[in-house]
Amino acid sequence: MSHLPAHSRWAWASSAISRRRPTRQCRWLRPIILELGGKNPVIVSRHADLERAAIGILRSAFGLQGQKCSAASRVYIQAPVYDELTARLKELAGKLTIGDPTERQVYFGPLINKNSCNDFKNLTGEISRSGGNFLTGGHILSGDKYDKGYFCEPTFVTDLPLDHRLWKHEMFLPITTIAKVKNLDEAMKYANDVDYGLSAGFYGSEEEVAWFFDNIQSGVSYADRPQGATTGAWPGFQPFGGWKASGSSGKNAGGHYYLPLYMHEQIHTLIK
């Protein structure tokens, strides 16, 4: 279910519940825990290890072609390291092999269906018309092996106005927007200014990491992680879930409070 956009997942949950209603009508509400969409930010400090940041952002942005709720879909970089980091992101994205994902050397496969491909086309067109620039990608691929699926390029976008709707819209595609910020407070303001709060990532000093964890509004947060800036929870080992519009309870799946959310309390009072 997590491969669906957030609005579709709400519809799916509602229809699934109605389809599975027992023959004898239930008189009570059923408990339900939802893990929904995300618009996951990455903040990069001037003190960050830029190689870690570049690899972590790339993996979270383009793993599964960005078709995952935990994808790194927006990046805020402090001005002093902006040029160096964007240059490295461009270099790494250019090395990704696009093709059949069952082949070992291929990292980047096709989109799931024609509708997603059309979304990619429409959204990249909107970005171009709105003043955004493509650091990488922006095109649908065709010819030869690319005619056997819905292939597009891994796309990093710069210079998109920060008030543009796509900074807050879950695209569920390999499109990640990048912005230059003056300081970390500005980055945090933008990071939290969305309806979602699923996952988030940070790269910086140890002192800055503590500040990040204290201020970010997300259910799952990562710092200085090259394996994935906003992605990497292991089911059974690390709880996963979202705040705000990314979840329904504020408690994460697999955590201490997950099972009790499905249980009923009974309070006993006896007066003697």
Description:
The chain has helices at 6-19, 50-62, 79-94, 114-129, 184-192, 206-215; strands spanning 40-44, 72-78, 133-136, 155-158, 175-181, 196-197, 199-203, 220-223, 243-244. The chain is of the alpha/beta class. The protein has one domain (39-252): Aldehyde Dehydrogenase, Chain A, domain 2. Helix 2 crosses helix 3. The longest helix has 16 residues, at 79-94. The termini are far apart.
Write a brief structural summary:
With 272 residues, this protein is of the alpha/beta class.
Mean pLDDT: 90
Can you tell me the residue ranges where pLDDT is under 50 for at least 5 consecutive residues? 6-19
In CATH, the topology is named Aldehyde Dehydrogenase, Chain A, domain 2
Kindly provide the name of the CATH class.
Answer: Alpha Beta
Order of helices and strands: HEHEHHEEEHEEHEE
Strand content: 5-15%
Level-2 CATH architecture: 3-Layer(aba) Sandwich
Count up the domains. 1
Q: How many angstroms does the end-to-end distance come to?
A: 53 Å
Radius of gyration, CA atoms, in whole angstroms: 20 Å
Class computed from helices, strands and strand pairing: alpha/beta
> What's the total number of strands?
9
Features:
globular; Aldehyde Dehydrogenase, Chain A, domain 2; 9 strands; alpha/beta; 7-stranded mixed sheet; 272 residues; 6 helices
Ordered list of secondary-structure elements with their pairings:
Blueprint: H1 6-19, E1 40-44, H2 50-62, E2 72-78, H3 79-94, H4 114-129, E3 133-136, E4 155-158, E5 175-181, H5 184-192, E6 196-197, E7 199-203, H6 206-215, E8 220-223, E9 243-244
Parallel strand pairs: 1-2, 1-7, 2-5, 4-5, 7-8
Antiparallel strand pairs: 3-4, 6-9
Helix pairs in contact: 2-3
